[in-house]
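Hi P.,

Sorry for the delay on this. The queue was packed all week, but I finally got your sequence through. Input first:
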Amino acid sequence: MPGFASHLVDRIAAHWVAAALAAGVVYGLSALVLQPLLPAAIGLVLLAGPAYMLHQVEEHAGDRFRRFVNERVFGGVEALTTADVLVINLPGVWGLNLAALYGAVLAAPGWGLAAAYLMVVNAVSHIAMAVRLKAYNPGLVTAILLFLPIGGLALVRTPAGIGEHLAGLGIALAIHAAIALNALRRARQARQP
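Then the structure:
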């Protein structure tokens, strides 16, 4: 079974970005048709999924982001692994966006704000990295063109209490902090003799 699991992970790693492109286009076109039929807040949470998938294509096609981070941010140390990228993006991002959509539909629109905050925090991270490194980083364009408008509009248009805002922001910050801390830990381990 370990051979099968390893083979499956290798296959997913090799093809998930192409799947994100296909799913992002189909899901996005479907969301655009459905959005006018839904309350604005729900429609914006629905758009978070395909927006993220298109962002992931810019970011991860050709393993660009992982290589960029390892080379430019961590000086050639493998701080971000292929497995990290898969866990972050598939169950992490896709799972969070799906959970946020279900929360917005089944509980209250404000419970979908985690998807909006995830986009905004991610966009701010890409912009901060570009400013710090004085260079483009994979994912920057879609972070600016998709995440800021969709995420920002969702934050403004979603009826939500302070608890829902704090929960959404807290989830987004916790996810980004966990990714950064894991990469720092792995880089520190790799640099030790």
